Amino acid sequence: MTPVISSPLVQVLRCMGLGAFFIFSSANATPATDIQFNTDVLDLVDRENFDLSQFSRKGYVLPGTYSLALNLNTVSMPERVINFYVPADDPKGSEACLTQAVVEQFGLTEKSSLALVWSDDGQCLVVDSLPGLEVRTDLGTSTLYLSIPQAWLQYSDPNWDPPSRWEDGLPGLLFDYNLYGQTQRQAVGDDRNSLSGTGVVGANLGAWRLRADWQARYDNASAGQGVGRQMEWTRYYAYRALPGLGAKLTVGEDFLNSAVFDSLRFTGASLASDDNMLPPNLRGYAPEVTGVARSNARVVISQQDRVLKEVRVASGPFRIQDLHSATSGSLDVRVEEADGSVQEFQVNTANIPYLTRPGQVRYKAAVGRPSGMGQESEGPLFATGEFSWGVSNGWSLYGGAIAGGDYKALNLGLGRDLLSLGALSFDVTQSVARLPGQDSQSGKSYRLSYSKRFESLSNDISLAAYRFSEQGFMTMGEYLSGTQDRDTTGRSKALYTFNSNQQLGDLGVSVGVNYSRQTYWDREGQDRFNLYTSRRFDFAGLRNVNVSLNAARTVNDGIKDDSVYLSVSLPWGGSGTASYSGSYAGKAVSHGVSYFDRRENGDSYRVGTTLGEGKTAFDGSYSHEGSLARVDASASYQTDRYSSASVSLQGGATLTPKGGALHRTGLMGGTRMLVDTDDVAGVPVGGYGQPVYSNAFGKAVVTDVGSYFRSSVRIDVGKLADNAEATDTVMQGTLTEGAIGYRSFRVIQGEKAMAIIRLGDGTHPPFGATVVNAKGQDAGIVTDKGAVYMTGIAPGQAMTVRWGDAEACEAIVPKVLPEGLGSSMALSCMPTLPKL
């Protein structure tokens, strides 16, 4: 960036105790009007030696090229190179050249874009051609401020930007991982050590995201069971956003994401309208998984042998809500307890009614071959497509078709928005299939769905769905199993799903119900019921006492498994929480007490003890949200039975041409922001959670940013070092899915000191001259007799003093800085060599 004087003169005068000292030459001054300074009030020894030309024109910027962040109607956008030129009608002025590439980011309506006028052979916008446009430059924060009337802009809301402002981010490489290690020692039985992991390796090239998913497991058991190893690449794929279509294109291995047909794994290509590109209030919902862990446990959520989520949970009820919104179909849930026991069940995800705004069409299409985990083909070429059309206010028509080999299915349905009463949809699917050596089979499947979103109750969702399938109905997955001679039992008959979660704010009560029942034509059915309620209140001087009750029943193949969990928690100490829990699970009753606390650095820990079945158990866990990874450790012990310990690491690495960093991560292979802190290490930056600290190269990666959602990254000034300052502390942006965004904060780090600057001939630089450091950052303004208060300096650093239009001289800071209040150092400023 071309260095420019930018520190406000008023700050200097305030330090000198001079107050206001200038008057305008005209009462109707404009940004191009000269400002006349009354220097008679200045108590200067050298009255002739001053240079205030940089302050003489309001908003004046020396012509040149600058790297400036854009701020449009208080919304920050990435830095752009802006050229300031001299207008033909104002030889003493300067104006920012807003190129077509810059204007495209504004998100103007089509009508206002067509009315724009361009100058300089179409290179720069004529500002007056967009009525109401105001442009202001603040070089102190390196920001170009733009104000545009909302009438000329596309739709946006406080958390969502139009597609013209979306960023594809930097090219780069990424590696995300989640590792989980556990050791178990049994008093009776086999000891076992295990290590498992999942992750994503990827590359970003423009709008394209290249990804490869992997999963691995290592088991070492005693008693001669040997060692088990497994490592496999479960998925190779690439995708990109098509903002003009509001859709996502995916090629490679994928899982069919359909609102009307069951999911299946295939290799091919798909094009689908992406609900994530819609404003937040129009987006779909992700499924959630609930259950009860009887101890410190590992929960593994998978689909068709591919691990989707692996997480450690403490004993008691758990609720996992951060699954990807594109997840559909049946999910396999495995809860591995600390004592080696395992709970397994399935969760059937359900879709809300498929409604579309009037006049809009949403669609999905895919073509390919079904494939297995080893990338081998497992069926004939197939094609599928579906749509949803907003016929009118409240009515939507939707449907789809899928065909491959000797299988065909057709779906047609109707959705109705009932306004305050919710939304309702009904559809019918007809399938025709012929398995090898068998006659053709046909049947229908009927589905009825209802949902209601309560905006006034924290956006809670109620969902009820019922599906009945005739005995001759067959899904594509069931057809493929039949052609591959796999087990074809488990033909669905009826599926009931009901989810409700209500927040009764006035009473401080939360109530939720999850119920699903799956029946089959050829085997026993499955039932899952979960009821949870909690209330927060104040009692006997204690604030935020919480009582919760969770009851669950699972019926699988006629076997019932009931559990009830009661918990009472209350504040204890400064930030801690003490809890009592009583549980009934597996026909066993237990009682436990625990203590949870969060440390000042954001780490948290939990210790507890449980008494049940005449045995005593102890457990504890510790979580650390580090800059390099999230670390969770836990240990459990039960007298005369078992002991176990586990640790998990969740992190990643991101590398781009702008730099890179190791970091903790959330969604594997997901969207992230590379933050540059101007080569300053140890700067705390973050999005919404615990901050991460920039590495030795001044780089940090923030991963808690959303896709197609305006996210903020900020410097936590409360944790910033005393010798560091940041001119800007918050920046925003909207990234496409999987993007690596980039934001640069101007951070000044160094000491503060007074100095007296002398030129080679013994005189001083003029009043108003600017001192900048090696990065071009303003360090101070020269006052009377060469005095300057400098910030952000380092011993031995070269400082440049400028006045007028050119660099003037260079001073070297001593290796030992003066100590004590009122101390100052003498600096000799030598002329700089002319640039070639």
UniProtKB/TrEMBL annotation:
Primary location group: membrane
Subcellular location: Cell outer membrane
Residue ranges of domain PapC-like C-terminal in the record: 759-811
SUPFAM superfamilies noted in UniProt: FimD N-terminal domain-like
Domain PapC N-terminal: 36-180
This protein's UniProt keywords: Cell outer membrane, Fimbrium biogenesis, Membrane, Signal, Transmembrane, Transmembrane beta strand, Transport
Top-level division of the source organism's lineage: Bacteria
Pfam families: PapC_C, PapC_N, Usher
Membrane topology: Multi-pass membrane protein
Signal peptide: 1-29
PROSITE patterns per UniProt: FIMBRIAL_USHER (PS01151)
Family in the record: Belongs to the fimbrial export usher family.
Protein name per UniProt: Outer membrane usher protein
Taxonomic source organism: Pseudomonas fontis
